[in-house]
Amino acid sequence: MNYLHSYRILIFIKDMNFTNIVNFGCRLNACETDLIKDFAQELGIVDFTIINTCAVTAEAERKLRQTIRKLHSQNPETKIILTGCASELNPDYYIKMEGVVGIISNKTKLSKSEYLKYATSKTVASSSDHPKVRGFLQIQNGCDQKCTYCIVRLTRGNNVSFHEDEILDQAKLLLAKGYKEIVLTGVNISSYGQGFEPRKNLSFVIRYLLKNLPAVTRLRLSSLDPADIDDDLIKVIASEEKLLPHIHESVQSGDDIILKRMMRRHSRNQLIEINEKILYARPDVIFGADIIVGFPTETDEMFSNSKKLLREAKLSLLHIFSFSPRPKTLASLMPQVEKKIILNRAKELKQLSEVILAQKLLEQVGKDVIILAEDNFSAKTNSFLQVRSTNKLAVGQEYLFHCDSIDKKVIIGRSIKEM
Ligand code: SF4
Question: pTM for the whole thing?
Fold first, then answer.
């Protein structure tokens, strides 16, 4: 675990009418604290302050002691429950501190039954009031590329990947919270593992997660850089059924000169070839893409190459970005395209992408597909197409769904059976 990266000093959460929760430490502690907060709500624990402690530095422990003293001096009636690394290391010391009434072991802190004895309220909030559908699991942060339009790499710093066991733990937490689908996320997830010795990659972390956590039944990838999609990743996409057939690519342009000026690492032909390979290996994949229109120096002809690429690379779900220069980027120093032209191109591309999406949706009509319900009448297919159901769905439930027709960007149909 990269403590420097993921270390957080303190998060204080106060839920209306519920226990105060204080978090010290790393991202994992923060995730656990979220879960503990859910327990407290479900069990109706009131009048307690739960602190998820951290021992990573002396400073963290100093702040913990300071917080306990402050809570006690502000309200001597405050009852404090400790869990986490600091209280695990020094339970005898902490239990003697004024205000501390209990310590929950680090090993059992994610067990709801540990909190039962503190449940004093008869009002029990059910977690089903807040159904959980899609949880985001960060596997890395930052980026080492130098795309000329991008400010993210300047604000987020270099690529830092999280250790696979930390990722596994976070996935367990998301499952424990009731999330039905996990989305691997980060600034540039396809760069996962750069800098690790021996070198690891995205394929590795997908395989590791699915192998070590069979309870993950739905795994989705966020945006991929086409330059990082290699044969091994295509093999994973083809062979891991739990990996959902939806690949979103940071394409950005369909013109090779613009791609070079953006300092992207793929060409239009490479993208077409990659997508052909993916479809050959897994025919139900649907591709999404980010496209920037009006990048500096983009001519009508270059823009038309982007339009043509939609069909050639089978890109159905488009995110269109109108270029705007960001400070301190190289692209901001290049000859800019007139704003009006950019807006027109964005509109033109949007219209084309809607036609292409409608064709893709029409291909589904008459078929039975698996969906995950997001609310009582809407859901997404595994390939991330939007559906609307004519019969009522239970949120977070998977169904086999019959596609009857389409309405603009949505498939209309009905659930046939629960999965
Ligand atoms: S656009 Fe993506 S790949 Fe390029 S520098 Fe920004 S974050 Fe990195």
Answer: 0.71
